[in-house]
Amino acid sequence: MSADPVAVDADTPVTVALHAMQSVKIRHLPVVDHKRLVGMVSFDDLFSYLSVQLGALADVVNASRKVPGSSPTR
What we know:
Mean pLDDT: 90
Helix content: 40-55%
Structural class: alpha+beta
Number of strands: 3
Largest sheet: 3 strands, mixed
Radius of gyration: 18 Å
Strand order of the largest sheet: 1-2-3
Strand content: 15-25%
Low-confidence stretches: none
Distance between the termini: 50 Å
């Protein structure tokens, strides 16, 4: 166990948490609030969250292509 582990605050954006994990090559990251441990987030958690977000974005893009009068994007 590390004396000073890499951790993120509870309100840290997902992309920042992923970057922190990649920078030290870890798959689990402590989440703190006022220096108190409040949870752990895993790479799999973040990957799953981002997959859902990308799916939602794809739905918005597909829906915008079906709007009458809108021009298709290329």
